[in-house]
Specification:
With 202 residues, this protein is mostly helical. Helix content is 64%, strand content 0%. It is elongated, with a radius of gyration of 47 Å. Helix 2 (25-65) packs antiparallel against helix 5 (100-136). It has two domains: 2-141, no CATH class; 169-199, no CATH class. It contains six helices and no strands.
């Protein structure tokens, strides 16, 4: 059981979660866990019912081969011999009498035979499930594998604010330095303008 869960649980989770988008991942995980628990519960219940039926049937058959005829209800009572129940031992002594030893061995053999058959049936479901998975599951890429492109808002660059111009800071044509010449005239003219502004006359 542990070997089968280890081989199937991780691939099953990956296949289920990759089949849905991230927006529905929570709901998909909840459904997956619910169905996994339901499947495990039903599997154990069905396997246990098959085992119980096989054990009762084979107990009646094998004990009958020892020369002791018992009914199904008595066979179910004799199952307690495996756990060492005193009531089951007294029932065996009352039913089988001198053949109690052979009947007890028949009960143990019926248990082992029924358990082996139940496990074989359970193991046979593994290849069947793998075959159905290969047939029914479609090979596809994860839903979120494609790159999602979001619309980009076109932002218009704002113009830089213009520097405030002063009428007194205008340069004379002869104060602008030509390319390759120092800008001494422009600097001197600005100093003169600042002095004129401070004195209020020029």
């Amino acid at each position: 059981m542990g070997f089968g869960i280890g081989l199937s649980l991780t691939p099953m989770n990956l296949a289920a979660m990759n089949a849905v988008s991230r927006d529905h991942a929570g709901a998909a995980a909840g459904i997956l866990v619910t169905l996994s628990g339901l499947g495990a519960t039903l599997g154990v219940a069905v396997t246990g019912a098959i085992f119980q039926e096989l054990q009762t049937e084979r107990t009646v058959t094998l004990v009958g081969n020892q020369g002791v005829e018992i009914e199904r209800g008595q066979a179910q009572t004799l199952d307690g011999l495996l756990a060492g129940a005193p009531g089951a031992q007294r029932s065996l002594d009352r039913i089988a009498g001198s053949d109690a030893k052979g009947a007890e061995e028949a009960v143990r053999e019926a248990f082992v035979s029924a358990l082996g058959t139940s496990l074989k049936l359970s193991a046979a479901l593994g290849p069947v499930g793998a075959l159905l998975a290969l047939i029914l599951l479609r090979r596809s890429s994860p839903v979120d594998a494609a790159r999602v492109e979001y619309p980009v808002s076109s932002a218009t660059a704002r113009p830089a604010p213009a520097e405030p111009s002063s009428p007194n800071r205008s340069l004379r044509p002869d104060a602008v330095s030509a390319p390759g010449r120092p800008k001494r005239a422009a600097v001197r003219w600005r100093s003169v303008e600042m002095n004129c502004s401070a004195l209020g006359r020029c």
